């Protein structure tokens, strides 16, 4: 995971809401898309906040602007996945919007990070295992290139 960047695992087709999206429509978005939160964008397309299931259940208001959480922790596409893992755990949050030049380009969630734990790549030169959904570009131990890796899927429950 330490070699992976957020852009390798993030979801790029992000469901979003506007500041004036009603609470009923927000609930419908979450339920329909089977997601637990939605980024809220202002009129210029910039990230204004995030509405989670918890916000809908615990806050009073009629629109996204009234119930959203502001001051959202974000990541960049080049943030290390390991850094995101620490943020998700330490801040007790479920996802981070991903911004490039101030614009929403994706979202990375706990489940995205957990998915990186299910696949390992083994360096044929030195035997080093690297977790992640994609072939590593180089081995962290012997610095061999990605051509020397083989996929070793983990059995369920391992």
Q: Could you state the CATH homologous superfamily of the largest domain?
A: CBS-domain
Distance between the termini: 17 Å
CATH topology of the largest domain: CBS-domain
Number of individual domains? 2
Strand order of the largest sheet: 1-2-3
Beta-strand fraction estimate: 25-35%
- The gross shape turns out to be elongated
Give the helix/strand class.
Answer: alpha/beta
Q: Return Rg in Å.
A: 18 Å
**Count of extended strands:** 9
Q: What top-tier CATH class of the largest domain fits best? A: Alpha Beta
Describe this structure in words.
The protein is α/β, with parallel strands linked by helices. It folds into 2 domains: 109 residues, CBS-domain (Roll); 37 residues, Rubrerythrin, domain 2, CATH 2.20.28. The protein is built from 5 helices and 9 strands; from the N terminus they run βαββααβαββαβββ. The strands form 3 sheets. Strands 1-2-3 form a 3-stranded mixed sheet. Strand 5 and strand 6 form a beta hairpin. The two termini are 17 Å apart. The mean pLDDT is 89.
């Amino acid at each position: 995971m330490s070699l992976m960047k957020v852009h390798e695992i993030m979801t790029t087709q992000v469901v979003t809401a506007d500041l004036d999206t009603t609470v009923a429509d927000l609930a419908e978005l979450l339920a329909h898309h089977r997601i637990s939160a939605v980024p809220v964008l202002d009129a210029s397309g910039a990230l204004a906040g995030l509405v989670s299931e918890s916000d809908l259940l615990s806050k009073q208001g009629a629109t996204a602007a009234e119930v959203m959480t502001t001051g959202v922790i974000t990541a960049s596409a080049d943030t290390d996945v390991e850094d995101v893992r620490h943020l998700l755990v330490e801040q007790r949050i479920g996802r981070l919007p991903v911004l490039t030049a101030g614009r929403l380009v994706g979202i990375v969630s706990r489940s995205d990070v957990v998915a990186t734990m299910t696949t390992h790549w083994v360096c044929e030169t030195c035997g080093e295992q690297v977790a992640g959904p994609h072939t590593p570009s180089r081995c962290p131990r012997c610095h061999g290139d990605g051509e020397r890796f083989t996929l070793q899927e983990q059995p369920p429950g391992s």
